[in-house]
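Risk register update: the risk of archive-format incompatibility is retired. Evidence:
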Amino acid sequence: MAMEGLQPSLHAQALGKLYLEDKITGREAIARIKERHSAKFGL
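Archived output:
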């Protein structure tokens, strides 16, 4: 992402770390990201 000029949020970095340590699954990470962002749009 950094190569494309995008900076991941601290939340995304923390989720990535948990995923790489096998503490959460990819599906869990996606669900957490969706939960966080859907709240901003009232969904």
